[in-house]
Amino acid sequence: MNYNFDEVIDRTQSSAVKIEEMKKIWGRTDLIPMWVADMDFATPNFILNAVKQRCEHPILGYTTKPDSYFNSIIHWIKTRHHMEVTKEQLTYVPGIVAGLGIAIHAFTQPGDKIMIMTPVYPPFSWLVTRNGRTLVTCPLVLENGSYRMNFACMEEKLKDVKMLILCNPHNPGGIVWSNEELERVANLCAKNNVLVLSDEIHADLTLSPHQHLPFAIVSDKAKYNSVTFMAPSKTFNMPGVAASHAITFNENIRKVLVDYIESSELGAGHVFAYPAVEAAYTHGNEWLDECLAYVKANIEHTLERLRTAMPKIKPIVPNASFLIWLDCRALGLNQKELNRFFADKAGLALNDGETFGKEGVGFMRMNIACPRSILDKALRQLEDAYHTL
């Protein structure tokens, strides 16, 4: 490899959420942080150098979006995901969660119903309820160690829903949805006049031999009844840059979104966003390929250790991302006990599965995007705690 993913980096002086928030949640700071979904690998130098180069200019003034910024996104999406996008169809948003919140305000009114498929990334539910909308859940079906969509539930509940927030690929399950599944979602939503917001932040982290399928390319119904959100943040470990983009093919939908963004002055971006994104998408292919190979090896290593030494902890094998959804129900612990087990007995800070919806009770989410030495230490601690239990 040309890049070093084995380097252990001290993040204690960087205001990292996964370090600084540990005390508030667990009451201690000595846990191995495997919860917040950023990686412990160095953000690649070609991105850091782009930011440094911008800092060499003595004025950090108002900044416009250069054509090179748009062109880098367009080329990346075409070559990595086989989707044709134009400059006009791209809209800057200050993060995908922020973009979802913007879309909720732009397209729905207080009290309107918004559907999510649980268990799913916790901000989906928070964005709905904290903005005064009505949350509708359509739980996924766990079957043969993986999740599938519940179309019977969707058909029943979509009739008076205004919006569906789709997680594609799925977090926390790491599921890469099939063309058939996405097409059925598109058909049902078009039939019921339900706008689809497709969060595709983990698209670039799809693991071989799987291939990410953008929702908007499965059919015309999907293309013209959706807003797709993508970003380099998870891909290149740069979420602190807060630079994402929305893709809309329907001109009417795009106008509503852009009008809301412009009326609220939310689309200006910041001085480092554009050079960082451009550098990532221009120079990032080799780094990403090596990162995915390392992540995949970490996943396989973790699955093997769980299978041989901790068989009652059953992982959902991810098709995408660096997150592993752990089914811990066979341990016989309630959720509070399960959280205490991982923190107090194993010394690990993982995400509480219940925060992903009630369907996440008995589960925990584990981030394995770290140097192998750290992962091995975590697995040793977990194995010791497991056998003590």
Structural overview:
The chain has a 7-stranded mixed beta sheet, sandwiched between helices. Helices cover 40% and strands 14% of the residues. It is globular and about 60 Å long. The chain is α/β, with parallel strands linked by helices. Helix 3 (45-55) runs antiparallel to helix 11 and helix 12 (285-309) packs parallel to helix 14 (372-388). The chain starts with 16 loop residues before the first helix and ends with a helix. The protein has 14 helices and 15 strands.
Average pLDDT, all residues: 97
Distance between the amino and carboxyl termini: 39 Å
Trace the largest sheet across and list its strands.
2-10-9-8-7-3-4
Beta-strand proportion: 5-15%
Number of helices: 14
Based on helices, strands and strand pairing, what is the structural class? Answer: alpha/beta
Helix content estimate:
40-55%
Reported for the largest beta sheet, the result is: 7 strands, mixed
The backbone outline, from C-alpha atoms, is: globular
Order of helices and strands: HHEHHEHEHEEEHEHEHEEHHHEEHEEEH
Quaternary structure of the protein:
single chain
In the predicted model, the low-confidence regions spanning at least 5 consecutive residues are none
Q: Using only CA atoms, what is the Rg? A: 21 Å
DSSP, total strands: 15
